[in-house]
Specification:
By secondary structure, this protein is mainly α. Helix content is 82%, strand content 0%. It is built from four helices and no strands. The longest helix has 56 residues. The termini are far apart.
Length: 153
């Protein structure tokens, strides 16, 4: 019997920051291997160490900047999706159908499925976007649920 295993999707090549840091580190090690105690040699090593530190800092700053930009775009997309869900929910709640007979039962069940689906999607999007959106959403969800219960009574 053959078993199939999946591998993690890891990058096939190094990140550019890593290669730059490796290059600076190799240069620094090479100057240390040719160790002389002259002031110019020590100065050269200190310059190499400073280049290494700057490269690491700049790389980290750039990665953090990219992450924050990506996160901002993601939050914007989630806010838009939540707004669209609210509009769908509003349309869903304002539609009136005849609740008589078999068709009325099917429509009623479909409405409940849609309400649960919207609620689950809202919860998921709120969880992904963090606590800020979740608190706003929970307030509106409570209002929405109260209005939905009120309209059914």
């Amino acid at each position: 019997m053959a078993y199939h295993s999946r591998s993690n999707s890891l990058p096939s090549r190094q990140h550019p920051i890593n290669s730059q840091i490796d290059k600076n580190l190799s240069r620094l090690r090479a100057t240390e291997a040719a160790s002389t105690s002259s002031s110019s040699s020590v100065g050269h090593k200190l310059n190499g160490l400073q280049d290494l530190r700057r490269g690491a800092e700049m790389g980290l700053v750039n990665e953090v900047r990219k992450y924050l930009i990506c996160r901002k775009a993601m939050k914007k997309a989630i806010r838009k999706a939540l707004k669209n869900l609210k509009q769908m929910e509003t349309k869903f709640n304002t539609c009136s159908f005849n609740k008589d007979g078999e068709n009325g039962t099917v429509i009623s069940i479909l409405r409940e499925v849609e309400a649960v689906t919207i609620s689950v999607l809202e919860s998921l999007l709120s969880f992904i976007s963090g606590p800020e959106a979740e608190s706003k959403l929970s307030r509106w969800s409570l209002v929405s649920k109260f209005m939905h219960q009120k309209s059914n009574v």
